[in-house]
Amino acid sequence: MALDGTILVLGGTGRQGGAVARELLRRGRTVHALVRDPAKAEAKALQEAGAVLVRGDMDDAASLTAAMREVHGVFSVQTFRGPGGVEAEERHGRAVADAAVRAGVRHFVYSSVGGADRDTQVPHFESKHRVEQYLRTLDLPVTVLRPVMFHDILLDIAPRPSGDGLVLAMWLDPRIPVQLIATSDIGVFAADAFENPGAWLGRTVEIAGDSLTGPQMAAAFEAVSGVPTRYQQLPIEPLRNARPDLANMFDWFEREGYRADLEELRRTRPHLVTLERWLADNWTAPVAAAAR
């Protein structure tokens, strides 16, 4: 049984878990953060922000069980980028859910991905869908959040100097919009779910904060930097050999795409972070381009 409404956050040293932990702390909630290495800089930063660090590992069932004692809620997020890839991600997702059942957790918020159930053919989307399906077999009060593409991803493919300005290049038809979200807004929605379980328990909700085409994304970069920025569509065929998972994702953007109800989300949360606003705080134009 929960004694104080404590929320255990997984992935607290990462982007999503960190955002959730910070938002919960901002709202005055007691936050425990599961960490493998309490000495890690990101873990220390969480502790300084007010979180209680709990040593544990998603491959160690005993540590998960111990971490969930007297915890009211759990925020569960896993990554496919570590050792073991999507197989480890799915195994960890199941293990965390099993531990929550054993502990009698009252509210389990799982972070999946937008469109997980819509034939994406993207391995790290499908792994999350399998975890979702597993959650439905358990006696566990669940909310599933399905965030869309992070604003952060655009830093990996940020505009590069070209000619007298910048060029943003992606494998995307310039007419096709893609929904985006700031990780801080994932934190907001997760905290909302814990704060108002009556409105969130049992729901699966796709969440986003913006929707832009490639040229509109380029315009957001230009608005922040003041440097002329154009959009360029890259041919997808070379990507199929180098990164078939990424090629499948961009194919899916054009075929199906995310379907978050932005109008409804903005009605309940009118200050969702747009790409332009996020870039103003998180991106600086390349020096060569900014000097032009």
TrEMBL record:
Sequence intervals crossing the membrane: none
Keyword NADP applies: yes
Pfam family membership, one: NmrA
CDD domains: NmrA_like_SDR_a
Ranges of residues in domain NmrA-like: 5-265
Extent of the signal sequence: none
Matching InterPro entries: NAD(P)-bd_dom_sf, NmrA-like, NmrA-like_oxidored
Keywords tagged on the record: NADP
Similarity annotation: Belongs to the NmrA-type oxidoreductase family.
PANTHER family hit by this protein: NITROGEN METABOLITE REPRESSION PROTEIN NMRA FAMILY MEMBER (PTHR42748), NMRA LIKE REDOX SENSOR 1-RELATED (PTHR42748:SF7)
Protein name: NmrA/HSCARG family protein
